[in-house]
Amino acid sequence: MILSAQNICKAYQDSHRTITVLDGANLQVQAGELVSITGQSGCGKSTLLHILGLLDDSDSGTIEIGGVQVNSRHPDAPFIRNSKIGFVFQFHYLVEDLTAMENVALPLLIAGKKISTSMDEAKAILGKLGLQERITHFPNQLSGGEQQRVAFARALANKPSIVLADEPTGNLDPANSLELWKLMRQLNQDLGQTFVVVTHDRELAKLADKSYELVQGKLNPL
Ligand SMILES: Nc1ncnc2c1ncn2[C@@H]1O[C@H](COP(=O)(O)OP(=O)(O)OP(=O)(O)O)[C@@H](O)[C@H]1O
Ligand SMILES: [Mg+2]
Question: How far is the centre of ligand 2, averaged over its atoms, from the C-alpha of 69 (Å)?
Answer without folding.
Answer: 25
